[in-house]
Design brief:
Chain lengths: 648, 403
């Protein structure tokens, strides 16, 4: 929406809504000047491409586009091509470009969340309602975001401290209730924001169950998946202050979660999982970009989780620790960082980063391993004329005994105002996680002799961007060596090994348009065809397990005056569950729809919205092939303070 | 829509690869292209003798398209009678039980070969737990003659044990709690006859067939043993027999099972909650007629027992796996009166076993070795039957011996 049009609407709103003062005909009065501040919700006007990413490929997802919808972080991330979500009973993880969840890093406001114990970040642990924006960068990003980002990164950003007063309530299927609220204020010197998210769900759902799937004509019966309840709460505190051109920002995020682990209908789990997270970050830097900017910060992350309550210990049970009803496993990371941005001329922009810290894993299953974290990196963006940009990055990372370099070279060529070509080549590594190195978890054994995985990737593509439409197409080839994989080493025992090399070839296509002010269309296709390079003829050239080759999504959303609505379609192709590619999980297609209406505008803007997930009740399965929840309905009420403000 | 996109992409690929179709076979006169392999002379190739896929037996040669045993050679004696499943390498190696020598042939290409059973004099069955494929192998030439993917290839089922009775193979599928009957009346075309559920959360482990044809299945997580009456077109699970656990230090986890003397015998792992031995292993003895059950303490030298087999001498032989990573296994021998226990200590981790006269063959579940125990001399001899790998991942999942 243009500024002029916005101002006109604001004036209209003023004329319509202001109470008309009763004036005496013979006593004309001057009205006080009125300043109208329009804080109505507005659909995000930006298209999902990345203006600040010089040569790479990625997608931005704005939470405010989905305000009337109940979505977790995994659901949000599915709006970026190249993303696949692995869903497990009681959790989900993200993968990019055919990489493993361990090879995709997740950051929240710049603090790395990906667990040092390994296994990929559980997306259900993220406070999605208080996330403002997610940036997904596809490709090997180790040179800029640190070792481990072989497939890419997901950057979550919480809202800036601003003047806001917002409340949202959701209720629906599976006895799900959620509340999130935010209050913020921004002054000349100080700013602050408090956001709260609470959610509880009974979670149990009916599912079709085949007790004898091997039989030819077996029949299914309706069963109920139980022990799927969850209660979670998060509080975000953000504050900042400005003095003499310097800005100091602080962030604290605390969250608690307790949930049941449902297991499968073949083996119902009775275990429960609890989590506690504390994230603290403090940073200081110039308020506005300077020719030479120095920023410094420190962050602390503590994440604890406990699993308990197995009625019968099995291979999926967390081992019992005598004397501890809830054996806590705690990860802690403390890191200090320094960044210097320097633009010595108008054709180059240099950045230097350095960080030092440590991470530890306090676990009853293997003492308290701790390792040193060190990194140092440099990058340069060189602008050759107005058309070419060259981006060079290099970074050294050390994780305990494992160290390595990551490099990246990117180039972009802006052929016209609306067409840009980009290409990148990058190399990086992933150190073994502390879980892979040290943790003994029942049948899972550690392997302290593991070596880092190494990955290389090149990609190229084009970006078309206009005022009302954008499209992005990219293709990539990657190779990973020394992939770490848990292998069965005897009946029931598994251990990680640097086991295989693999290749991935793929492409992404993304398009978005806003042909009318009230209409938005968005869609994407991601393809990642993996190829096992192990010499073994059983596996040679076969696809890696749990890597669906294709994923497609499309979304149409409308925002006519006082109304909102959307229709969404998702499709994921078949994926293999074993290396010899004889057993697979089926392709899956599902739809979401929703609609909402504005109820009031002033002094509170309020909306009521309803949505239906998996509208056609498609049989969706998780990573083990077991049924996920079917069709679900949710209703969301939201209110944002939108007063008409008077003043001089 | 999705299909349309796929079709479009495939069309593009088809256009670019159009030149490849319809090409003539490049084989010359008298040669035949067999299954994508190099051109072969079916008159003399012993793996394609007289036609593609017709392999000659051990010792035989292919002469004018016919497999013949050369004069002066005892081809029958060259047929291997001992087989070992190498889990990581994914092959079943063939050996001679007399001297544990390799017969120079293997069935390759299995993902996680876990369990084997003899079908008849000429064929045996091997099941991969990771590829979920049941293969019928002709042991005279070590060629796969038929195969079947379990679970319809659409869901992981974790097949763990197979037993054969007549022309039926019964496969225990641990993840989906099934015992699946596979019809092998035509070994080239195995087909699922039916599947019987052992019940939610039971995690069936192994099975044995009694003289009446009843299947007895150990339910690892349920701590019980389940009888299943099987018929031609279906089976019926009976009431599971709960194992009395008051004497146990740990969780029973019934694993191996055998039927002899009208009784059912099951080994109890007796593990703690970290899957380490909680005490000595037990042999559960159940009399189906009387409904009585007793426990035989296998002693402190036999922990974490796995397979059990009934010997011709009326005694029961138990493979004791021991502690993980410590190679402190043993072979426990229980007298027919279930009163005395002999122990033969073995520096390995035996899990599955096969008996043949005075010898017991034990698969080392933690290394690439096979252990042959001379029961008369109480001596153990180890032989490397799987190629050891650099990482130390390899282990012998199962062993099969022909009398």
């Amino acid at each position: 929406m243009s500024l002029r049009r916005w101002a006109a609407q604001a004036i209209c709103a003023c004329l319509v809504c202001l109470p008309v003062p009763a004036l005496a005909e013979d006593e004309p009065k001057r009205l006080d000047p009125v300043e109208v501040v329009d804080t109505r919700e507005r659909v995000e006007e930006r298209l999902p491409s990345l203006e600040e990413e010089p040569t790479g490929f990625g997608t931005r997802i704005f939470r405010r586009e989905f305000l009337g919808e109940r979505l977790d972080a995994a659901d949000l991330l599915l709006h970026a091509p190249g993303v696949t979500i692995r869903r497990l009973p009681g959790g989900s993880t993200i993968s990019l470009r055919g990489a493993s969840p361990d090879q995709t890093l997740v950051f929240l406001d710049g603090v790395r969340l990906s667990p040092s114990a390994g296994g990929g970040l559980d997306l259900q642990r993220l406070p999605a309602s208080i996330v403002e924006e997610i940036t997904v960068l596809r490709g090997n990003e180790g040179a800029r975001y640190g070792a481990g980002a072989l497939g890419g990164v997901a950057l979550l950003r919480t809202p800036d401290a601003q003047r806001v007063l917002r409340l949202r309530l959701t209720g629906g299927s599976f006895d799900t209730y959620a509340l999130d609220a935010a209050v913020g204020q921004k002054g000349r010197v100080y700013e602050g924001l408090v956001a709260l998210e609470l959610e509880q769900t009974d979670g149990d759902y009916p599912a079709l169950f085949d007790a004898t799937p091997s039989a030819g004509g077996s029949t299914t019966v309706k069963e109920r998946v139980s022990n799927n309840d969850a209660r979670a709460g998060s509080v975000l505190l953000k504050g900042g202050a400005r003095w003499d051109g310097t800005q100091v920002q602080a962030l604290a995020l605390g969250s608690l979660l307790e949930r049941g682990l449902p297991g499968t209908l073949y083996l119902r789990d009775t275990q429960r999982r609890a989590e506690r997270r504390l994230l603290l970050a403090l940073g200081a830097g110039p308020e506005e970009p300077q020719e030479l900017s120095v920023r410094a910060g420190v962050s602390y992350r503590s994440e604890a989780h406990s699993v308990w309550g197995a009625e019968i210990p099995s291979v999926i049970s967390q081992p019992v620790v005598p004397g501890q009803e809830r054996p806590w496993q705690v990860e802690r990371a403390l890191e200090g960082n320094l960044a210097i941005d320097w633009a010595p001329t108008d054709f180059t922009f240099l950045s230097f980063t350095a960080s030092a810290g440590s991470e530890s894993l306090s676990s009853p299953y293997h003492g308290k391993p701790e390792r040193l974290l060190l990194s140092a990196g440099a990058s340069d963006e060189i602008y050759l004329g107005r058309a070419f940009t060259l981006a060079l990055s290099g970074r050294y990372d050390r994780f305990g005994d494992h160290e390595g370099f990551s490099t990246r070279l990117g180039i972009s060529y802006r052929a016209t105002d609306w067409l840009e070509f980009r290409a990148n080549a990058a190399e990086s590594f992933r150190p073994p996680s502390m879980g892979e190195l040290y943790l003994v978890l029942g049948p899972l054994q550690p392997n302290p002799d593991l070596e880092p995985e190494r990955g290389r990737m090149i990609d190229a593509g084009a970006i078309l961007s206009g005022r009302r439409a954008m499209a992005q197409i990219s293709a990539f080839v990657g190779r990973t060596e020394n992939l770490i994989s848990y292998e069965i080493v005897s009946g029931g025992r598994s251990k990680p090994f640097n086991f295989l090399d693999a290749e991935v070839v793929g492409a992404e296509l993304e398009a978005a348009t806003r042909p009318l002010s009230w209409l938005a269309l968005r869609g994407g296709w991601g393809m990642a065809r993996t190829r096992n390079l192990l010499e073994d003829p059983r596996y040679r050239d076969k696809e890696l397990p749990y890597r669906p080759a294709h994923r497609i999504f499309a979304r149409v959303s409308v925002h006519p005056r006082n109304w909102e609505g959307f229709v969404e379609a998702h499709h994921q192709s078949r994926q293999w569950v074993n290396r010899s590619n004889t057993v697979s999980l089926p392709e899956q297609t599902w739809f979401r729809v929703g609609a909402g209406r504005r109820l009031t505008l002033h002094p509170w803007e309020t909306w009521i919205s309803a949505q239906a997930d998996n509208v056609f009740d498609a049989h969706l399965v998780d990573q083990f092939g077991f049924p996920r929840a079917g069709r679900a309905f949710f209703v969301t009420f939201r209110a944002t303070s939108n007063p008409i403000q008077r003043g001089s | 829509m999705t299909r349309y996109i796929y079709l479009s992409l495939f069309s593009l690929v088809a256009i670019f690869t159009a030149g490849c179709s319809g090409e003539e076979s490049a084989c010359g006169d008298g040669l035949v292209e067999c299954g994508g392999a190099a051109c072969v002379d079916v008159k003399s190739n012993r793996y394609h003798c007289g036609g593609c896929g017709i392999a000659c037996a051990f010792g035989q040669e292919c002469v004018e398209g016919v497999c013949v045993c050369p004069e002066g050679v005892d081809c029958e004696a060259l047929v291997p009678d001992l087989f070992a499943a190498c889990f990581q390498a994914g092959h079943v190696g063939s050996y001679y039980k007399e001297d544990l020598a390799w017969a120079n042939a293997s069935v390759m290409g299995i993902e996680g070969p876990q369990t084997m059973a003899a079908l008849d004099e000429d064929h045996f069955v091997v099941v991969g737990t990771l590829d979920q494929v049941l293969r019928v192998v002709n042991r005279r030439n070590m060629q796969v003659v038929g195969q079947l993917t379990l679970g319809k290839g659409t869901a992981p089922t974790s097949p763990n044990h197979v037993a054969v009775e007549g022309s039926r193979a019964y496969v225990v599928q641990s993840l989906t709690n099934e015992v699946t009957a596979v019809d092998l009346s035509d070994p080239r075309k195995p087909r699922v006859a039916y599947s019987v559920s052992t019940g939610e959360g039971t995690n069936p482990y192994m099975l044995a067939v009694d003289a009446e044809g009843t299947l007895w299945v150990t339910l690892w997580l349920a701590g019980a043993v389940l009888p299943i009456e099987v018929g031609e077109n279906g089976g019926t699970a009976g009431e599971p027999v709960a194992i009395e656990t008051s004497e146990l230090e740990g969780i029973p986890y019934p694993a191996g099972i055998a039927v002899a003397h009208g009784k059912v015998y099951a080994t109890l792992n007796n593990l703690d909650e970290s899957f380490a031995p909680a005490g000595s292993g037990r042999l559960w003895v159940y009399d189906p007629d009387a409904g009585d059950q007793t426990l035989v303490d296998l002693g402190p030298a036999c922990t974490n027992p796995s397979a059990v087999a009934a010997g011709e001498d009326g005694r029961l032989y138990v493979a004791c796996t021991g502690h993980w990573g410590e190679s402190d296994g043993a072979l426990a021998i229980v007298g027919s009166g279930e009163e005395a226990v002999e122990i033969i200590e073995i520096e390995a981790s035996p899990s599955r076993m096969a008996l043949d006269g005075r010898f017991a063959y034990l698969a080392d579940g933690a290394s690439h070795r096979l252990v042959r125990v001379d029961l008369e001399r109480e001596e153990a001899r180890q032989a490397s039957v799987c190629a050891p790998d650099e990482e130390g991942m390899e282990f012998v999942a199962d062993v099969l011996v022909y009398p």
